[in-house]
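Q: How would the structure tokens look for this protein?
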Amino acid sequence: MALSTEEIAARYGTALFDYAKDMDALETVHADLQELAQAVSDYPQILQAFSDPIFNSAEKAKSLSAIEQGLTKEVQNFLNLLLDYDHFLELPEIIKCFNDLYNQSQKIETGVAVSAVPLDQEQLQKLGAGYAQKYNLQKVILTNVVDQNIIGGVILKVGDCVIDGSVKNKLKKIRAQLINKN
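A: Here is the predicted structure in token form.
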């Protein structure tokens, strides 16, 4: 029975995380994986080339050695393992799994700040810092989503937690109070 992409990503991502941790190279492996993720995002044909049966394993290995220059030995070994087991297409999902484990170990959360108007990077950092301090986290990395329907304020969604500070929500609460009084 073939494994799903999620199962492959979970197994390989966890294995790479544990390996990097054991080798005391967690930070450098994380940095290398961020570079790889950006390269794969910019040039998705990279994944296709390493999974294409037209190219033989020697050609793929030669191409991979050119990409691996400057990467840590741990990441080089890992990429060769993915190539050997023909799981190169799953690299983005494996990196995501690794990042989730890394963030968890470093007490870093990611989330979304929904606002009526676009927020700049400084505003997002201040919101994230406030949330991190309140919930005893090292860091919260927020992305901004604009939804003019909330009228004003901000809705923070981090993990399973939602903090609704929108004007729309406040108006809804006032309306409910007025209805209950009558």
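The chain is about 60% helix and 15% strand.

The longest strand covers residues 108-115.

Upvote if useful.
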